[in-house]
Amino acid sequence: MRPASLFFALLTAFGLASGAHAYAAPGSQVVYEIGDETFEGYYAAAHGDASGTVLIVHDWNGLDDYERQRADMLAELGYDAFAVDLFGQGNRPETTEARQEATRALYSDRKRMRELTLAGLAEAREQGAAESVVIMGYCFGGAVAMEIARSGEADDVVGYTSFHGGVATPEGQEWPEEVPPLLIAHGGADNSVTMEDVAALVEELEAIEATYEVQVYSGAPHGFTVFDDDRYQQRADEKSWAAFQHFLAEVL
Known about the structure:
Blueprint: H1 3-13, E1 28-34, E2 37-44, E3 53-57, H2 65-76, E4 80-84, H3 96-107, H4 110-126, E5 133-138, H5 140-151, E6 157-163, E7 182-187, H6 195-207, E8 212-217, H7 234-251
Helix pairs in contact: 1-7, 4-5
């Protein structure tokens, strides 16, 4: 079966085709504690022997059906998948203002952003997830994945992926001399993350001789992978998912 056919077969199997109703997630909700705070992630175990683990970092609206769907798709492909919660149990902001506030709090406290992400990774391993990990994220989650990659603080992480995520390096940060391979999936018509940001990232990664790949999809806006959204672009979603599967097969 060709990658495109497999992709849409998975969409159909999980009820993600156009006009689908509420998603019935077959994985498990996972409530966990970080300090005195409660978080709620989502774990989908690989079908059969796991080839590795994918840690999914959510967009600015918090962990919802979208990340659960992607986790279950990855489990079907043979990967343990854990969707981490960075906002806290019950905090799923619905308005633009609330989403901006939730993400701004973490953008302004990068230490907390990293701590919550790495605690989520530890919880994934508590759930029995395979040790070797790829960290990936969508939009805000993509920026988080890049933050962890720059920090060098994660153990046994073999790759990082950003789907239409922020890629700019914050002031005062820089890339370490060694970093696992990276895959950047970017929309050519993205008005939120500019091509100048992508070009600057390429220069930084070239300077440290990193292994990376940047995929740019023509006409794709910011958020081009989000199902049932006006920004969704089938071609870019299909191609970026196929590129991600190839990336996973290489590093895991």
